[in-house]
Amino acid sequence: MKLVSVQVGRPRTVRWRGKSITTGIYKKPVTGRIMARHFNLEGDQQADLTVHGGRDKAVYVYPSEHYAFWQKELPGTQLPYGSFGENFTTEGLDEQSVHIGDRFRIGGAVMEVTQPRLPCYKLGLRFRRPDMPKRFHVSGRCGFYLAVIEEGEVGAGDGWERLAHDDREMSVSESYRSVFEN
């Protein structure tokens, strides 16, 4: 389990479907180490704090393994890490193996899995495809959010040490499905 890439970004306003939309979905890779703070990563901001960010959604994680699926689904689309708005692109972690409440030491920080990411229209904006939120949903490749329990430096290449795991808790995948079954 490792951190392959770290991305941050600041909100920007773009035109889409005849409207000006402010979004923080556009992320760029970070070189070196940055601080993971309780509300976000150093240099990162969210645009709409009613649905993104805050203590329970300080860091968004997306597995690198999902990129091969999306490359087949979206041929000809360039997909650098961070394309889905994630802060952390990982290897060896997925929605089935990670449970809500799992705690990890990542570099100098301790973080806890809080919830799956639910798709929103800004995925459509990012990919210039109105069908993208639905495709994202149907795929089940949602990624997950982390709360920063102990602040510390993180960087690409850091391992993930699992500090706490409870099989009785829902996996991220189970949690994601439960939202849409009710």
From TrEMBL:
Domain of life: Bacteria
GO molecular function: catalytic activity; molybdenum ion binding; pyridoxal phosphate binding
Coiled coil: none
InterPro entries (alphabetical): Benzoxazolinone_Detox_Enz (IPR052353), MoCF_Sase_C (IPR005302), Pyrv_Knase-like_insert_dom_sf (IPR011037)
Domain MOSC: from-to ranges: 28-163
Transmembrane stretches, start-end: none
One Pfam match: MOSC
Name the record gives this protein: MOSC domain containing protein
Organism of origin: Nitrospira japonica
